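User: I've been trying to design a sequence by hand for this structure and keep getting stuck. Would you show me what you'd pick, starting by listing the structure so we're on the same page?

Assistant: Good idea, let's start from the same input. This is the structure you sent:
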């Protein structure tokens, strides 16, 4: 692939960097930048404000077709924007609507569904959550038991979903329910768009170990959903689900965020002395930071390659590069854990101090990032499941389960 940007793309990159640098001056205290911050009580108004400014410029959802409110950007232009946002740890907008549900609707939604949902996503006005996992259906998602029963022009949904990131702020959910109880596993599942204000929906917070509120359980008690809100055919929702999964995994923003963190840590080590010498002179610290820089560049190259293959190969490439996206997801989520862990090692005992302590380095940003990063290799398919996918579809090894 050609790693060099065109002069127009270089100019875009500079515009995005300038925008995010300015926008992040108003960030809430101890902002780390993950979903935990974006959807927190304090962070959500900031997220909405930044995203609405991005939308005004046509930069929030550049890659959607213009007829639905996008700017018609190429995948590579979207990557430049994502990388700039990641570098500044800026709000990236509604990853569930912009990154998952919207692209799925563009490919398989009805014209009515596209017109109803895509423009508000592009304007940053409608936030989405993903209602897939259940207490007994995570990796084994096809085991889900939430039921949808046809009743006239509607379906009536009953069941429990869990780990729904951002369900407490979401306007809509894309969710899965079983429409044919006789058929087991992936057959008999349908894909619905549900207004979160529908009567019968109860959202219960699941508080994380750092005290933040991102996750939720969602209970559906006789929730009436119009049949026109089904995406794809009845009982054929698994194919739509697979498509959304392929859109779910990318990751260039994460690598860019790591680069910014490493730069910040290098500066800290140059300025901080221990036993009369700067930390930057300590061979162990130098070696660890250098190793992180190598790994981050390798991850970035992988993300660029995936975007470039998708750009040149279209929709077909999105399916065939899925195993590479799995590689990027495993690598990126585990690397983020290493960056946060090494930062805490550099800080020594101070690294254990959390937000609110005046002695916490970088206001406790890295310990918060470390705690958040633990979920990164579980969310959107665990590292074990991603490795299975890489083995089957990337390496052609036999499927064993
Ligand atoms: C931070 C975070 C955010 C999330 N956000 C959402 C969300 O917004 N919406 C939503 O619907 N869900 C969400 N989830 C749920 C997530 O998709 C599931 O947690 C994930 O799929 C794993 O399912 P599980 O928790 O039931 O674990 P299990 O599936 O029970 O897995 C337990 C362990 O067994 C391993 N394992 C299971 N099967 C296999 C296998 N076949 N081969 C090898 N190892 C295996 C797993 O890797 C894991 O280590 C989120 C989870 C996290 C942590």
């Amino acid at each position: 692939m050609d790693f060099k940007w065109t002069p127009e793309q270089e100019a875009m990159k500079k515009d995005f960097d300038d925008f995010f640098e300015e926008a992040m001056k108003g960030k809430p205290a101890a902002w780390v930048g993950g979903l935990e911050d974006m959807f927190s009580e304090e962070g959500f108004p900031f997220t909405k404000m930044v995203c609405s400014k991005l939308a005004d410029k046509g930069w929030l959802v550049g890659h959607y077709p213009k007829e639905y409110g996008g700017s018609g950007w190429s995948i590579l232009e979207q990557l430049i924007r994502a990388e700039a946002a990641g570098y500044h740890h800026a709000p990236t907008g509604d990853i569930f609507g912009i990154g998952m549900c919207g692209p799925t609707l563009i490919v398989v939604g009805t014209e009515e569904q596209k017109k109803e949902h895509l423009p508000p996503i592009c304007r940053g006005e409608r936030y989405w959550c993903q209602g897939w996992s259940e207490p007994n259906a995570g990796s084994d998602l096809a085991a889900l038991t939430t039921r949808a029963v046809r009743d006239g022009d509607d379906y009536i949904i009953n069941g429990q979903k869990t780990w729904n990131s951002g369900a407490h702020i979401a306007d809509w959910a894309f969710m899965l329910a079983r429409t044919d109880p006789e058929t087991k596993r992936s057959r008999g599942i349908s894909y619905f768009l549900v207004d979160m204000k529908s009567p019968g929906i109860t959202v219960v917070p699941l508080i994380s170990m750092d005290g933040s509120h991102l996750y939720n359980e969602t209970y559906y008690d006789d929730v009436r959903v119009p049949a026109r809100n089904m995406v794809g055919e009845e009982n054929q929702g698994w194919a739509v689900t697979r498509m959304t999964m392929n859109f779910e995994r990318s990751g260039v923003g994460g690598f860019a965020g790591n680069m910014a963190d490493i730069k910040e840590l290098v500066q800290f080590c140059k300025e901080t002395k221990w036993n009369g010498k700067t930390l930057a002179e300590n061979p162990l610290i130098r070696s660890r930071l250098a190793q992180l820089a190598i790994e981050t560049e390798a991850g970035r190259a992988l993300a660029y390659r995936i975007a470039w293959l998708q750009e040149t190969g279209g929709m077909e490439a999105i399916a065939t590069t899925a195993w590479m996206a799995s590689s990027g997801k495993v690598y990126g989520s585990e690397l983020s854990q290493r960056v946060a862990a090494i930062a805490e090692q550099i800080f020594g005992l101070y690294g254990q101090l959390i937000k609110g302590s005046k002695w916490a380095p970088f206001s406790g940003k890295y310990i918060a990032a470390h705690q958040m990063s633990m979920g990164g290799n579980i969310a959107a398919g665990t590292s074990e499941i991603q490795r299975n996918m890489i083995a089957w579809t990337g390496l052609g090894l036999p499927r064993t389960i």
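That's my pick for every position. To get oriented when you compare it with your attempt: Residues 129-237 form a domain with the Butyryl-CoA Dehydrogenase, subunit A; domain 2 fold (CATH 2.40.110.10). Strands lie at 128-131, 147-151, 154-161, 172-178, 189-195, 201-207, 213-226, 230-231, 273-274, 277-278.
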